[in-house]
Amino acid sequence: MGKKSMIVNSHDVTCDAEYSLWVEDLKQSYRTAQANAILKTNLEKLKWYWNTGGELVTRKAEERWGAGVVEQVSLDLQAEFPNSKGLSADNLWAMKRWYSFYANNIRNEKLVRYVQELYNADIQIEKCDIIPFPNIFGLVPWGHHLDVIRLTSTLPEAIFYIKQTIQEGWKRPVLQRYLKARLYDKQGGAISNFKEQLSGKQAELVQEITKENYDFGFVELPADYTELNLEIALERHISRFLMELGNGFAFIGRQKEIIVDGISRRIDMLFYHVRLHCYIVVELKAVRFELEFAGKLNFYVNAVNDILRNEGDNPTIGLLICSDMKQTEVRYSFKGLSTPIGVATYDNVQIANIERELPSVEQLQQKIKQLEMQLNERKLNNE
């Protein structure tokens, strides 16, 4: 038999024999993990967190042993493993919230498709006491998981951020920024004709990579900036722009030249999507959508298909990003076009404070006085 389980007592808790046996089981599972030196890995640590959260939920610990049971379990575990981190009462409560969030969603019969996606397999949840740990979770740090359950409300949304974190290698501040910006709600939001012009699966994938609105908050420009200013700024911050576009975009170039009937034409920005295996023509407009913009983008998409597209490449996609648009105008402009095109907006460009970069009137006057004094001194020296 191990050490006595209750070293220090918490308030509002009844520690009976059943509680002692349960805590000994928790200690043994933790001790086994330590003995095998596997708690150092994120996967095994999170598995233990998940199962402990599941124990607190399925045993209805607070009803059985009192309101202070979580604090008591924390005291018992910390007394047994004084050098281990992650055993605080706050963290145990977080384990319970984490498990509860997914358990409540996973048992929802309407979300079977998402449950299969989470486990990458069919799984008989109704036969499980504690729901199995999704191995994909082991690829994401604990702090990320806490942010996801704090700032999302549905299983599809949570899965989206988990997968994006893995695919994009998001650090925690990046994940927090996208959670607060509601990236999930904006995904696939571009107004497009993809369903009409592409095959079913390709249309779905292309729609998923586009957004309703792009956040250009990493760009700083003067208040009267032009389309060319915007292009140059995005190229200067191409890493941030690629992050905003999403996973799979490879930058080909800005003002990419194509020759049509001996006349040089230039595409604002050209990309290749490595997962969709297609070119993506991006046209930028620093003004609201105008009807002629769709026609010009259609021209560029057709030209890239004829001139740059190789065997094995899927049809080229056109994406127009403008400052504002009216959806009905955009949809009407698609009629008669045979190329896949999407239209989105952008916002949050930071307006540069030009005044701070220019000298004030007083500074100019002081500078003039200094120059006059220098000239007078030179005259006196020459005399």
Mean pLDDT: 87
Q: How many beta-strand runs?
A: 9
| CATH class term of the largest domain | Alpha Beta
What is the CATH architecture term of the largest domain? 3-Layer(aba) Sandwich
Order of helices and strands: HHHHHHHHHHEHHEEHHEEEHEHEEHH
Please, could you describe this protein's structure?
- With 383 residues, this protein is an alpha/beta fold.
- The protein is 52% helix and 15% strand.
- The strands form two sheets. Strands 1, 2, 4, 5, 6, 7 and 8 form a seven-stranded mixed sheet that branches. It has a two-stranded parallel sheet with strand order 3-9.
Layout of helices and strands, plus pairs?
Blueprint: H1 17-35, H2 42-58, H3 61-65, H4 69-80, H5 89-106, H6 112-119, H7 142-151, H8 155-168, H9 172-180, H10 183-186, E1 191-192, H11 194-197, H12 200-209, E2 213-215, E3 220-221, H13 227-236, H14 238-245, E4 249-260, E5 263-273, E6 278-288, H15 291-307, E7 317-324, H16 327-334, E8 341-347, E9 350-351, H17 354-357, H18 361-382
Parallel strand pairs: 2-8, 3-9, 6-7, 7-8
Antiparallel strand pairs: 1-8, 4-5, 5-6
Helix pairs in contact: 2-5, 4-5, 7-9, 13-14, 15-16
